Amino acid sequence: MKECSQEITMEKLMQIIDEFCKERDWDQYHSPKELAIGLSTEANELLALFRFQSDEQIRAMFENQREMIEDEIVDSLFFILRFASLYDVDLLAALERKMIMNRKKYPVDLARGKNIKYTHLK
Question: Could you give the 3-state DSSP secondary structure of residue 76?
Fold first, then answer.
């Protein structure tokens, strides 16, 4: 796995994306609805890469087509970071808060090794 040539922060990534969008006058197209649609579209493009593929074929894709997969992941990240930047979402704080909630919903003793929704854990 290649590493970035420099250490980069979430804020720096948002700044890069904001500058890119401002140069193109795209703010007008980045309402919450449009950004959510963009995120969903890009996430589905990632999903489409794996459609009808076996686990073995998907593993091979990571060896042979990694850049294409990475591009779709980053396209999704673009919309997440753009949304967070425009609508003042502190992603790190929100993730920390959500993980606290998830730990309560999915206690290790009930959830370990299970892939079911928390409402079905007993």
Answer: helix
User: What residues have CB less than 8 Å from 108, skipping those under 6 apart?
Assistant: none
Confidence grade of residue 4 (pLDDT, cut at 50, 70, 90)? low
Domain co-membership, 104 together with 71: no
Q: Is 110 inside a domain boundary? A: yes
- Would residue 80 count as lying in a domain? yes
Q: Which residues neighbour 110 within 8 Å (Cβ) at sequence distance 6 or greater? A: 121, 122
Q: In the prediction, which pLDDT does 122 show? A: 83
**C-alpha to C-alpha distance for 33 and 13, rounded to whole angstroms:** 22
Instruction: Count CB neighbours of 110 within 10 A.
Output: 13
Taking alpha carbons only, the member of 93, 117, 92 closest to residue 105 is: 117
What is the C-alpha separation between 16 and 52, in angstroms, rounded? 36
Residue 114, classified by CB atoms within 10 Å of its CB into exposed (0-12), middle (13-18) or buried (19+), is exposed
CB 46 within 8 A of CB 72: yes
Q: Is the pLDDT of residue 5 over 70?
A: no
pTM for this predicted structure: 0.87
